[in-house]
Amino acid sequence: MHSVRRYMKFVAPYYKQILLTIIIGIIKFGIPLTLPLLLKYVIDDIIIADLSAEDKIHRLLWVMAAAFFIFIVIRPPIEYFRQYFAQWTGNKVLYDIRDRLFDHIQRLSLRYFSNHKSGEIISRVINDVEQTKEFVITGLMNIWLDMTTILIALTIMFSMNPLLTLVAISMFPFYAAAIKVFYSRLRQLTRARSQALAEVQGFLHERVQGIHVIKSFALEDYEQGQFDRKNGRFLRRALDHTSWNAKTFAVVNTVTDIAPLAVIGVGAYEVITGRIGEIGTIVAFFSYMDRLYEPLRRLVNSSTTLTQSLASMDRVFEFIDEKYDIVDRPDARPLEDVKGEIAFENVSFRYEEGGMPALQNINLRVRQGETIALVGMSGGGKSTLVSLIPRFYDVTEGRITLDGRDIREFKVRSLRDKIGMVLQDTILFSDTVRANIRMGKPDASDEEIIRAAKAANAHDFIMQLPQGYDTPVGERGVKLSGGQKQRIAIARVFLKNPPILILDEATSALDLESEHLIQESFEELAKNRTTFIVAHRLATITHADRIVVIENGKIVEIGNHRELMARRGVYHDLFQVQQLQSE
Fold first, then answer.
1. Residue 349 has what DSSP assignment?
2. I want to staple 398 with a disulfide (CB 3.0 to 4.6 A). Which of 116, 299, 347, 557 is the partner?
3. For 493, what's the count of Cα atoms within 13 Å in the CB-facing half-sphere?
4. Torsion of CA 18, 20, 23, 25, to 10 degrees
């Protein structure tokens, strides 16, 4: 019930709409409860009454006119507003929850996303949140309406015949016991089914994104087998859930069917012995039996739906409870004026607690406006080092300072706002070229966007696209070449115009001509800015003020190009190898 209490915090702002919906619903369900009474009146007071045919027809016309007015004029708008307010409230609650979840997703560190499939995260936000709507529609509205309908029906039935009413409710304790026995297990099976479905969705999400790899290695049959196993696991969980659900319905519906049979037997006996004389009364009573047990059967369905909703609710809050690795300190302050002096002081870092160190005892002081190139073999720790500056991860030991202050003293968003990055894995969103560039500065004018694109050597190819800057780039920029995507990502940084630059293999996907033009733009952009360049092609960083060689998470050499070449160490050997390969 802990999840329910937490969920109610999202529901609480809409309690007025829920109360209004329940009141309208009571009227909506109350109107059909008049039909058995109408039937009783027509039989006892019109059909078999000692009246003339003219009086009977006169009474019947008035009664039917009133009934048609209620069911044709009054009931339809009541039904409309009940449905509308119920769905409006449910959807507003889901809107608030998804809004909260998206904010939560953006606060989670990259470590979380490294350890969890994006498809499973999406399943929580879409499928599980959607399922919780039934708690609002069914749990907070329909169940109460059905219970109100049962109470009204029982009150009317008791006024007609107390004995038959007691017979009608004799099976209620068995009904309650069956619900209690079956639904705790059903909730567990529902959670297992939801988890298996999320795993299928996660598998699909990965394979759709990597379909070119599957096709290039002719892995279709192998991947079909992998999917069959995931899908088969979901099928087993779904069948376990279905089997238990079917048992629940079989038992509960049997219990609810016994009472009407008992009422028929006792009612018939009462008529035969003359204890019930009015035919209309007994007909109306049997009509109310349906009004009594139909809501009970709906409650069975509601219980199943609520069980699924509660299981999804548990999964939603399980996700919300994921802790943030990167958080602002209580006394953190916004970062405003930045000079750009950065220092790594005895910095060590591990991706996992107890795991192998990715960086060990890094000491590096970077002056304001200095360009630092990080080089070394793949996996040495270059990208890890620069990812610590915007606090994508926090150092395990030591500290990083900006203008003499620990970067953890600043609010994370204000810190990242002062840093421009072009990452090795270029990500574009499925929007227009203009929108992707504008992410560097959301309020930028079209003129500013064009200037940034020109500076990144992207304007010419953009103008050749079918719709120019308004051309959609497709998911992850699939409609553009690698070099084009990279230049758009670089244009973002030009537009942002930050005091600190981080270029992680920023020119790796460019041809030599474009690379040369981009290098000139970078050199212009880097003036009076602190710049970190992670590079594989050493020829592109010979202009750097200092070059830092990293091996196995440690700094092994520091100096400019000429100094390191004269030293004939690791950098010299790497440079010579690349020169030989390019000849």
1. E
2. 347
3. 28
4. -70
